[in-house]
Design a protein that fits this description.
The chain has 245 residues and is low in regular secondary structure. It has 2 helices and 2 strands, in the order ααββ. Strands 1-2 form a two-stranded antiparallel sheet.
Length: 245
């Protein structure tokens, strides 16, 4: 069998070092072994990448709009500024991947593993991260409006300066997370674990949100909110009015 007659998947596996800017729209690459592949700038819109192995691959500026990446492996991949808008990433394993400046909006990332990923200035609007593992992510200044993080693991996450208006964190674990200067207007924090979290200088945060969450004496709150502890677990939160000079 000549290389020209090989099925597309096998052909790409054989030439994975030379796939920059490749036109792979709608390609069926399910289960392909493409570790370390050079796919920078490639067009993978609508491609079937279910269970594909792209560990350590270069996907910077690749277009994966509405691609199927269910149960795919992108561990340690470089997806800097990649477009994953509307992609199916259920069960994605992408630990230590670089998604800085990438577009992960309108996507399904339920039960995905993005632990320790670089997500600086990443777009994650209107996406579903329910049950996902996002421990120790670097997500400063990311755009996370109207997304779901129900039951997600966000311990130690850096979300400083992130935009999280109307974001759903119900039951999420945010222990020792850094949310300093984040925007939390109308966010759902019911049952969210904020023990040891840094909420200094956040905007849009209300006493009702804090009272619906789980905090402890090491939780750092913005100056307009004060907590009076009634016991080790029970507290009252009240708003401090700014003094007019």
């Amino acid at each position: 069998m000549t290389e020209e007659s090989l099925p597309l998947k096998e052909k790409l596996e054989a030439s994975k070092k030379y796939l920059q800017n490749a036109d792979l729209k709608g390609a069926d690459l399910a289960g392909a072994e493409l570790k370390g592949a050079l796919l920078g700038g490639a067009d993978l819109r609508g491609a079937n990448l279910e269970k594909i192995f792209l560990g350590e691959a270069e996907l910077n500026k690749a277009n994966l709009t509405k691609a199927n990446l269910e149960n795919a492996n992108l561990s340690s991949a470089d997806a800097n500024k990649a477009n994953l808008n509307g992609a199916n990433m259920r069960g994605l394993y992408a630990r230590l991947a670089d998604f800085r400046g990438a577009n992960l909006s309108n996507a399904d990332l339920t039960k995905s593993n993005l632990r320790q990923c670089a997500l600086f200035k990443t777009w994650m609007k209107n996406s579903d991260f329910s049950g996902a593992n996002l421990q120790n992510i670097k997500g400063a200044q990311s755009q996370m409006q109207e997304s779901k993080f129900r039951g997600a693991k966000l311990e130690g996450a850096d979300l400083s300066g992130a935009r999280m208006e109307e974001t759903d964190f119900e039951g999420a674990s945010l222990q020792v997370a850094n949310l300093s200067r984040a925007v939390l207007k109308n966010s759902n924090l019911k049952g969210a674990d904020l023990k040891g979290a840094n909420l200094r200088y956040t905007t849009g945060l209300t006493k009702d949100q804090i009272e619906s969450a789980l905090i402890d004496k090491t939780t750092l709150l913005p100056s307009h909110l004060k907590v009076k502890w009634k016991s080790e677990k029970e507290f009252e939160c009240h708003t401090v009015e700014k003094k007019i000079q």
